[in-house]
Design goal:
By secondary structure, the chain is α+β, with helices and mostly antiparallel strands. It has 2 domains: 231 residues, Rossmann fold (3-Layer(aba) Sandwich), CATH 3.40.50.300; 103 residues, Nucleic acid-binding proteins (OB fold (Dihydrolipoamide Acetyltransferase, E2P), Beta Barrel), CATH 2.40.50.140. It has 9 helices and 20 strands. The strands form 4 sheets. It has a 6-stranded mixed β-sheet, sandwiched between helices. The longest helix has 18 residues. It is globular. The C terminus is likely disordered. The structure holds adenosine-5'-diphosphate and magnesium ion. Adenosine-5'-diphosphate binds next to strand 2 and helix 1.
Length: 377
């Protein structure tokens, strides 16, 4: 089932102070049928609020939600055909796994035989069909989360909504469970929205990711495209480990300078910029264009992390990654050439990537003109 969010907005008003929080601000997204979409952003950026509005647990302040062609904005949660999974599993402790999974079928007209069948199918799908008689406290965290997923799937939902479902699992289980979720999503073909603050998780699991900041959508695309082609400094910084290195730079006469060293040519006009360089964008070379002072080397099997310093770096140190067979001096100055496709230029004021500034929508222009016209009268 395709999900469409149109200008979806949620404003919370603090009754005492009358202050407003725009938790979700004019969100416009189309989630294609059968895809897994990752909602990604730092804590407090409006991910859960978006998910709760899709589920119907929270009513939007403005905007619409469509499932397929149907406007479900005013529809009660239980009529939307959704499966919800939370971070904390939320299983009923006094019920067995089987009773937990079957619980959503209680008020539906489903025969006992069909309930048994559906329960077993869901349990098989998440590979816990051997645990049906256990109570939740007899299961590991990963197993409990599988029960929660089975319970969400037993109604054959149109839409599966997952809110940070892996956050309470340890690192290995998180990796394994995320592969499982991807597999289950593929097998069932259920349109899925997966909320996470973990960029690596979102990148690895999603067909598309939606990057959010302070309630506002920043970019939507396939994960690799968002990584390779970020629209602004926030997105560039949010994706990638180790994160992108940021330098204060400037453009003069179509050359980009970092710390007064010309590092590359550019088509853009003179201005102050941030220069972002991905860790894999550095090439050690005697004739390198950027000089940095080595601070520390981390040799890690496959590659070497060179930790170095440059006065123009935004952070105290720069982290670059090169192959383990590259000769790197143990101390002193290291010179780098930069791979052009790993270097990004951002406007120092707006933090938009150069060439990626949003076009002003025609209606916004006419609105301003209209206001001015009224003022003149
Ligand atoms: N019920 C609420 N009342 C007031 N403010 C809320 C409420 N729920 C969320 N918020 C605020 O809305 C913003 C977005 O919250 P949330 O959607 O939970 O973020 P996320 O899930 O991305 O961490 C935050 O500033 C949060 O404090
Ligand atoms: Mg949340």
């Amino acid at each position: 089932m395709k999900i469409v969010l149109k200008n979806l907005t949620k404003v919370f008003v603090n009754k005492k102070t009358k202050s407003e929080v725009r938790a979700v601000d004019n969100l416009d997204i189309e989630i294609p049928d059968g895809k897994l979409v990752g909602l990604l952003g730092p804590s407090g950026c409006g991910k859960s609020t978006t998910l709760f509005m899709i589920s119907g647990l929270q009513a939007p302040t403005a905007g619409q939600i469509y499932f397929g062609d149907l406007d479900v904005t005013q529809l009660a949660p239980e009529k939307r055909g959704i499966g919800l999974v939370f971070q904390n599993y939320a299983l009923y402790p006094h019920m067995t796994v089987e009773q937990n999974i079957k619980f959503p079928l209680t008020n539906m007209r489903v025969s006992k035989k069909e309930a048994d069948e559906r329960c077993l199918n869901a349990a098989r799908l998440v590979q816990i069909d051997n645990l049906l008689d256990r109570k939740p406290n007899e299961l590991s965290g990963g197993q409990q989360q599988r029960v929660a997923i089975a319970r969400a799937l037993v109604k054959n939902p149109n839409v599966l909504l997952l809110d940070e479902p892996l956050s309470n699992l340890d690192a290995r289980l998180r990796l394994q469970t995320r592969e499982e979720i991807k597999r289950i999503q593929r097998e069932t073909g259920v349109t899925t929205v997966f909320v996470t603050h973990d960029q690596e998780e979102a990148m690895s699991i999603s067909d598309f990711i939606v990057v959010m900041k302070e309630g506002v959508m920043q970019q939507v695309d396939v994960p690799q495209k968002v990584y390779d082609d970020p629209v602004n400094l926030f997105v560039a910084k949010f994706l990638g480990t180790p994160p992108i290195n940021v330098f204060l730079g400037e453009i003069r006469d179509h050359k980009v300078y970092i710390n007064n060293e010309p590092i590359m040519d550019t088509e853009f006009e003179d201005q102050e910029v941030y220069v972002g360089v991905r860790p894999e964008g550095f090439v050690v070379s005697d004739k390198g264009v950027l000089s940095c002072e080595i601070y520390q080397l981390e040799v890690m099997g496959r590659d070497i992390s060179i930790i170095s310093k440059n006065p123009a770096s935004e952070k105290p140190t720069i982290r670059s990654i090169v192959d383990a067979d590259v000769k790197v001096p143990a101390s002193g100055i290291v010179k780098f050439n930069l791979k052009p496709n790993k270097v990004y230029l951002f406007n120092r004021q707006t933090e938009y990537r150069l060439g990626k500034e949003p076009l002003v929508k025609p209606e916004e222009v006419s609105e301003t003109e209209a206001t001015e016209a009224t003022l003149e009268n």
